[in-house]
Amino acid sequence: MNSASYLALLDEGVLEHRVEELERLLERCTVCPLDCGNNRIENQLARCFSGRLPIVSSYTAHFGEEPPLVGTKGAGNVFFGNCNLRCVYCQNYQISQTHKEQIKNEVTHERLSEMLLELQSRGCHNINFVSPTHFAPQMARSILLAARKGLRLPVVYNTNAYDSVAVLQLLDRIVDVYLPDLKYADDDSGYLYSKVSGYKEYSRLALREMYRQTGDELVFDENGLLKRGLVVRLLVLPNDIGSIAESIEWIRDELSPRVAISLMAQYYPTNQAETNKRYVLLSRRIRETEWLKATAALENLGMTEGWMQEFDGAAYYYRPDFNDAETPFKDIRDFDSL
Ligand code: SF4
Fold first, then answer.
1. Residue nearest to atom 6 of ligand 1 (CA)
2. How far is the CA of 25 from the centre of ligand 1 (A)?
3. pLDDT tier at 327 (50, 70, 90 boundaries)?
4. CB of 36 closer than 6 angstroms to any ligand 1 atom
5. Which contacts of 41-49 are long-range, i.e. CB under 8 A and separated by 24 or more positions?
6. What are the structural domains of the chain?
7. pLDDT at site 322
8. Least buried of 5, 11, 191, 311, by fewest C-beta within 10 Å?
9. Alpha carbon nearest to ligand 1 atom 1, residue
């Protein structure tokens, strides 16, 4: 059975204190860099439309993640409702941008902890919290409750990278694997396409903290399953929105050339990117030339760790209900030439 770092915190009697410190941030919410200051303990809502309790739109064994997260039995995905960002091309917008709908998926911390134990009993190899930023305190509370009842799986923090460093510091050794989606290398794109200020600055501060905690080494178990580490996802967008090469260069120079990258080709226009002329630059899939430019950047910048999707058919994979047995990712080293 996989072991997880939060178990040591539980044994040391530290885990509960961390959870309480995280929950105190809800009283005048500073759980993400938006710092809305609303009292979520009293269910005052702000930018993410989220209150005291977690909102879980679905939980399932998922096969659309990177190979060492999927293994043979799948990643134990928990899809949170709502989000602190408003990406106009969000491929989960049905759950991230429909708060009036999502409220019906509000659950207790106990119920969420039961979901984690259920995923473990189904044989999932980890608990993969998808879009957890705005529910980080609730996530931590559910891990505490589940760990007391036998949860042993590694925790994956699958985030949009618009995270608070103070929160990440409290999640140190609660989270085993950080899986940030580094969206942009400039603030203007963050503001136009995800409706937040300072995306470049905050996401890079967050990645520095994640890297401080995990370093650049990926830790696998005897079955090749990922137990600990940092994997930075880079979704290639049309018209090089997000400036992939700049992000790769920043990772190489400011973190390490050995940080694992997961390069993704699955973008397809949906949500407002499909309908609103204002976002015409995002209104098509990527071209093969754009994909090859991104893969060439990986090679030219000497990045050798990680995974990438195959260009052909990649967009087919990305749906919350995707559950084919084969993961869409290949090891970066498997490609005969990048
Ligand atoms: S988590 Fe939600 S309420 Fe809290 S600061 Fe972020 S957007 Fe605002």
1. 32
2. 10
3. low
4. yes
5. 45/99, 47/84, 48/82, 48/83, 48/84, 48/134, 49/82, 49/99, 49/102
6. 6-337 (3.20.20.70)
7. 45
8. 11
9. 134
| Closest-lying ligand 1 atom to the alpha carbon of residue 30 | 5
What are residue 306's phi and psi, to 5 degrees? 130, -155
82 lines ligand 1 (CB under 6 A): no
By the 8 A CB rule, do 310 and 330 touch? Answer: yes
Nearest CA owner, ligand 1 atom 5: 35
Contacts of residues 29-38 at CB distance under 8 Å and 24 or more positions apart, as own/partner, are 30/164, 30/166, 31/133, 31/134, 31/136, 31/137, 31/164, 31/167, 32/84, 32/133, 32/134, 32/162, 32/163, 32/164, 32/167, 33/162, 33/163, 33/164, 33/196, 33/198, 33/202, 34/84, 34/196
The residue whose C-alpha atom lies closest to atom 8 belonging to ligand 1 is: 36
Task: Fill in the amino acid letter for 145.
Answer: L
Whether 267 contacts 235, CB under 8 Å: yes
pTM equals 0.95
Joined together, the tokens standing for residue 150 give: 């036998």
Cα 262 to Cα 264: distance, rounded to the nearest angstrom = 6
Q: What is the mean pLDDT of the chain?
A: 93
Alpha helix (H) residue ranges in the chain: 6-11, 15-24, 67-70, 93-96, 99-102, 109-121, 136-148, 165-170, 187-194, 199-214, 244-250, 272-275, 288-300, 314-317
Residue 316 clears pLDDT 70, i.e. is over it: no
| pLDDT beyond 90 at 318 | no
In short, whether 31's Cβ falls inside 6 Å of ligand 1 is yes
Q: How does residue 321 score in pLDDT terms, banded at 50, 70 and 90?
A: very low
What is the per-residue pLDDT across 102-126, written as a single tens digit (0 to 9) for each? 999 999 999 999 999 999 999 999 9
36 CA to centre of ligand 1 in angstroms: 6
**Nearest atom (ligand 1) to Cα of 133:** 1
**Three-class SS of residue 334?**
helix
For the Cβ of 134 lying below 6 angstroms from any atom of ligand 1, the answer is yes
CB of 48 closer than 6 A to ligand 1? yes
